[in-house]
Amino acid sequence: MALAAARRLLLHAGSRLGRREAVDGARRFANKRVLVETEGPAGVAVMKLRNPPVNSLSLECLTEFTISLEKLENDKSIRGVILTSECPGIFSAGLDLLEMYGRNPAHYAEYWKNVQELWLRLYTSNMILVSAINGASPAGGCLLALCCDYRVMADNPKYTIGLNESLLGIVAPFWFKDMYVNTIGHREAERALQLGTLFPPAEALKVGVVDELVPEDKVHSKARSVMAKWLAIPDHSRQLTKNMMRKATADNLIKQREADIQNFTSFISKDSIQKSLHMYLEKLKQKKG
Ligand SMILES: CCCCC/C=C\CCCC/C=C/C(=O)SCCNC(=O)CCNC(=O)[C@H](O)C(C)(C)COP(=O)(O)OP(=O)(O)OC[C@H]1O[C@@H](n2cnc3c(N)ncnc32)[C@H](O)[C@@H]1OP(=O)(O)O
């Protein structure tokens, strides 16, 4: 309830701000964790995640992301969105582990509902989505990129991308898996999911997790030129085609959202899974020291 009220407030405040800035010509709105700029080619917004240090998808970040998308969807002048990160070297570290560790079942259920919500919005968006992957992109970070229509990645071997859930002792849910299969094919997805593979850029390109690699300083300009090509296609035919390609996958979650929430909640609440997450978080800490 409290979150729904916050969401309404944010949406309202955001739309007032958006209107005022549009009049000034600034064409920019921001929540705390998501910045949206609509300068540049007509009809294109750049959405930047800014939830330092690693753009983990906390409940607040998910909510702000979903609201920003909703606003862009409602703005008929926007036809395409470039999704990128403001955190140096990190696209997104994926779902926030602290939302899935040491909390109560009601929190897990609320969190998962919001993860589903963002995924459904992104995956089924009528807008053209291009990701400019300018850093590490594990698990939920990869999920964000996979929702896009085209993925441009910085060719920096320090950055990796993939669904690595099995390395954490958790399991990518069926809709993550379905989207992976849709993108890289059954055999590659089967192998990568079981091994929790995090692909360096050259391998990500080879297997099809990303569509193009460019030097790091060219990621944004390339994303813009890709966007220009997609903008040249009439919206109605592109949108109908996208819907035809993606609807069955999205519907598969829509028809069992509640069961999926229950599944997640009981899985993540298990002592053994909490223990695995604890160990993983400790490993992240030790890496530093
Ligand atoms: C059978 C039924 C199944 C039903 C469904 C069941 C299960 C649910 C599946 C859930 C799906 C989950 C999806 C996910 O996205 S899980 C998250 C996966 N993410 C990762 O594995 C990334 C972990 N992080 C890293 O590898 C690195 O942090 C990095 C992103 C490569 C960045 O490295 P670096 O710049 O060296 O930063 P640090 O490692 O030092 O991290 C800085 C601080 O940030 C904290 N951190 C990192 N990642 C996360 C995260 N995902 N969530 C929360 N916090 C994170 C890290 O601990 C550091 O914190 P500190 O400063 O307090 O020590």
Automatic annotation (TrEMBL):
Pfam families: ECH_1. Its EC number is 5.3.3.8. InterPro entries: ClpP/crotonase-like_dom_sf, Enoyl-CoA_hyd/isom_CS, Enoyl-CoA_hydra/iso. SUPFAM superfamilies: ClpP/crotonase. GO terms for cellular component: mitochondrial matrix. It is found in: Mitochondrion matrix. It catalyses: a (3E)-enoyl-CoA = a 4-saturated (2E)-enoyl-CoA; (3Z)-decenoyl-CoA = (2E)-decenoyl-CoA; (3Z)-octenoyl-CoA = (2E)-octenoyl-CoA; (3Z)-dodecenoyl-CoA = (2E)-dodecenoyl-CoA. GO terms for molecular function: delta(3)-delta(2)-enoyl-CoA isomerase activity. GO terms for biological process: fatty acid beta-oxidation. Pathway: Lipid metabolism; fatty acid beta-oxidation. The keyword Mitochondrion applies. Keywords: Acetylation, Fatty acid metabolism, Isomerase, Lipid metabolism, Mitochondrion, Transit peptide. Gene3D superfamilies: 2-enoyl-CoA Hydratase, Chain A, domain 1, 6.10.250.170. Key enzyme of fatty acid beta-oxidation. Able to isomerize both 3-cis (3Z) and 3-trans (3E) double bonds into the 2-trans (2E) form in a range of enoyl-CoA species, with a preference for (3Z)-enoyl-CoAs over (3E)-enoyl-CoAs. The catalytic efficiency of this enzyme is not affected by the fatty acyl chain length. Belongs to the enoyl-CoA hydratase/isomerase family. Homotrimer. This is Enoyl-CoA delta isomerase 1, mitochondrial.
